Amino acid sequence: MISENLLIEFREFLAQHMGLEFPENRLPELERSIDRAAPDLGFKDVDSCVKRLMSEQLTSHRIEVLASYLTIGETYFFRDEKSFKVLEERVFLDLLRKARSSHQFLRIWSAACSTGEEPYSIAILLRRILPDFDDWNVTIVATDINTRSLEKASQGVYTEWSFRGAPPWLKQQYFEKTRKGHFRIVPEIKRVVKFAYHNLAQDPYPSLLNNTNGMNVILCRNTLMYFGAEQRQKAIRKFIDCLLDGGWLIVSPAETSLVVDHRLETVSAHGTMLHRKIGGPARKVKISETAITLSQPLVPRQAVPEPPSHETTEYLQRLSGTPSSMKFDLPSEVESRGFSYEEALELYREGRYSEVTKKFPVKISRVPLHGKESAREASLLAQAYANQGMLIEALEWCAKATTADKLNPKYHYLFATILQEQGRNEEAVKSLQKAIYLDQDFVLAHFALGNLLLSRKNSARSQKYFDNVLNLLLKCENEETLPESDGMTAGRLKEIVRAMTHRL
Ligand SMILES: C[S@@+](CC[C@H](N)C(=O)[O-])C[C@H]1O[C@@H](n2cnc3c(N)ncnc32)[C@H](O)[C@@H]1O
Questions:
Q1: Are 89 and 55 found together in one domain?
Q2: Residue 73 CA, ligand 1 centroid: distance in Å
């Protein structure tokens, strides 16, 4: 038995760290769940379990165990048929029409994806409606707090239960039967979806770091209803920051009334309510918590030798593989509108990326750029473009930043992040190596390189970089926010890396 006061204190703790809310009528359920979770968490009795959880650092392992007892992972393919019909006939039709005439990019985030049925359904839907699917650059990021669910999702093997209510063609066309009589998703669908751990209550978003920026569509269905009002509002605000202008936030029909924000308009289609981010100037909103860390100077370590002798721009041009006339010729005659860096930064922090790119370049597009100040302006533009999914422009401005401030590792890191978003992993590895060459203590660059190598199945080399991360983090306080991390703390990164290396 646990005292009522302690249970209520624990309820607040869960709301803060996992977003989950347990109202009065669900308190007995919470007590039963934690009672069952205690042995798995290594405690004999529930009382000491709850006290220790609240007084010690909440590790990934503990979150993982708690998530498996406290969250509901219920999901299945093409869940809520009507929503998929609306997605096909309203959302994707609209987005694809616009994208086809320009860049053929589409970025989707299935937040709280559980065991993966939802993001795979989206991938299948897109393959069906896009005859030239392979010519498109489709990114589907799928995240959850429950690592066991994510592991199952990455395997992509399902039982009949996941197909309840699904159309008959689904299994026949997109799954292979295993010897055990289960169903394995076909490789061409599997490769489109990228699964990753992400806690909506704690981890940063939008962020280039975890690829949650510049989204056309975010699905967060059957999850916000379990969040407390404060965490829910916070999550909705951050989702909107992640969306491109005109992008869509899709929740379940039971949750639409919970989604209220002045930056969203409600669109009704086939009797379903959808939410779309209003494009153009928005009213001033509170600065998001995920402040970017541009203001923190990253000074190259002493005794760093000169980078390779070739001009950085040329080097970057070679990396990006595109002729200079295409990538770096920007207008030289420009008029200054007096739009300051600080104003642009403020807009950026508010998630008003299109305003940054519309107003800011006029002032700074003189070529060539020189010095740290121009570099930081160019880098802000690069990030604003990246957050709108305009990766070519983002790459151009990032290249300008590296030219203007050659020895600054953070611009090479940013460059690598954008290349990675384009699927140009080999070039991204080179840029990350360069960032580390300029600053051996650049934690996020080591982490990104470890991740990249891991995705290329080079676990021995990735382990080396993860070890570097852990060694560097020994020097940091857990609460310390890491540079270039969009608000990630040292303690959080330690947890993530430990969980990853554990699995390795
Ligand atoms: C009912 S499932 C929804 C699955 C899918 N979106 C659907 O509608 O079919 C809810 C999911 O939310 C996840 N979840 C709960 N709290 C979360 C948090 N703070 N961050 C990320 N995911 C969370 C759970 O692990 C679970 O997989």
A1: no
A2: 6
Q: Is 254 in the pocket of ligand 1 (CB under 6 A)?
A: no
For residue 361, the model assigns a pLDDT of 67
Residue of 20, 122, 145 with the most ligand 1 atoms within 8 Å of its CB, for mutation: 145
For ligand 1, whether the C-beta of 83 sits within 6 Å is no
d(CA 384, CA 380): 6
Indicate which residue's Cα is closest to atom 5 of ligand 1: 113
Nearest CA to ligand 1 atom 2: 73
- The average pLDDT across 74-98 equals 90
In a domain, residue 286? The reply is no
Q: Is position 294 within any domain?
A: no
Last residue of a domain, one of 40, 70, 100: 70
Is position 75 within any domain? no
Domain hosting residue 22, numbered range: 4-70
For ligand 1, is residue 114 a contact (CB within 6 Å)?
A: yes
Count of domains for the chain: 3
Q: Is the CB of 19 under 6 A from ligand 1?
A: yes
- State the CATH number of the domain containing residue 467: 1.25.40.10
Please give the model's pTM, rounded to 2 decimal places: 0.74
Q: Is the CB of 200 under 6 A from ligand 1?
A: yes
Nearest CA to ligand 1 atom 7: 75
Residue 71, ligand 1, Cβ within 6 A: yes
Query: Based on the domain organization, do 342 and 413 belong to the same domain?
Result: yes
73-84 burial string, b = 16+ CB within 10 Å, else e?
A: bebbbbbbeebb
SS3 content of the chain, % helix, strand, coil (to 5): 55, 10, 35
Q: How far is the CA of 341 from the centre of ligand 1 (A)?
A: 38
Q: Which amino acid is at 464?
A: K
Using one digit for the tens of pLDDT, what is the confidence trace for 266-302? Answer: 998 888 889 999 874 433 322 222 222 222 222 222 2
Determine whether the shortest distance from the Cβ of 145 to ligand 1 is under 6 A. yes
At residue 485's C-alpha, the angle toward residues 480 and 487, to 5°, is 55
Domain boundary pick from 277, 298, 320: 277
- Adjacency order of strands within the sheet including 105-111: 193-197, 137-144, 105-111, 215-219, 243-250, 272-277, 264-269
**Residue 420 near residue 320 (C-beta atoms within 8 A):** no
Q: Do residues 70 and 18 touch, judged by C-beta distance below 8 A?
A: yes
